[in-house]
Amino acid sequence: MKPLDFLIIGAQKCATTALFEHLRKHPDIAMPLEKEVPFFTGDDCSPESWDLFAQNHFGSDQNHKLWGKASPQYMCDPQVPARIQKLMPGVKLVAILRDPIERTRSHFQMGQRRETETRDFAEAIAPLLAADSGQAGSSLPVPDHADGYESEADFYVAWSEYGRSLEGFNACFEPGQLLVLYTEELEAEPEATLDRLLEFIGLPTGFRPDT
């Protein structure tokens, strides 16, 4: 089965949904109907499992298109880079980042909306600012929310430490395989930012989705 051509790896709360919605409108791109359909966060990332996943989410009539996927959890899981590299060493990776304080606050507010967070912001963040808290948070299992929303409070700060999150990808892939975009760029210059992304994945610039 065909591998992915590109993969949006995150970060969470940094406009991965916007990129997903823009790209899935492109006539030469195939993406799953839903954004957060996990694969590389599971233990079984074998070729056989990918074939089954691809049949379910891409079908057999999309091989002429570029295949892409968006999963912001991938930047959060230190096991993911090696899993991707082993199965799809030539894939192009896209990270979109945001001011880390704003990302942390947005993550906290999402916890409030999900009713997994009852503290105020200062109370929730204070224990996470210890010197070793980021390292601890980056090694914890990523919640899969399979049985309802789980608290992500341990990750409010760790998932905003982009350098640490991207270390594994830099170790597993060539520099030219990773494009880093910024939420602020997408907001201020959406057309130019989308053109950079299209050029990176090998498509002509100029596509303008109705989104």
Q: Could you give the order of the helices and strands?
A: EHEHEHEHHHHEHH
Number of strands: 5
Number of separate helices: 9
Strand content bin: 5-15%
Biggest sheet overview: 5 strands, parallel
Radius of gyration: 17 Å
For the record, give the distance between the C-alpha atoms at the N and C termini, rounded to a whole number: 30 Å
How helix-rich are the residues, as a percent range?
Answer: 25-40%
> What's the overall average pLDDT, rounded?
91
| Model regions low in confidence, pLDDT < 50 over at least 5 residues | none
By secondary-structure content and strand pairing, the structural class works out as: alpha/beta
- Overall spatial form: globular
**Strands of the largest sheet, in order across it?**
2-3-1-4-5
Short description:
With 211 residues, the protein is an alpha/beta fold. The chain contains 9 helices and 5 strands.
Fold topology:
Blueprint: E1 6-10, H1 16-23, E2 29-30, H2 47-57, E3 66-70, H3 80-87, E4 92-97, H4 100-113, H5 121-125, H6 133-139, H7 162-172, E5 178-182, H8 183-188, H9 190-201
Parallel strand pairs: 1-3, 1-4, 2-3, 4-5
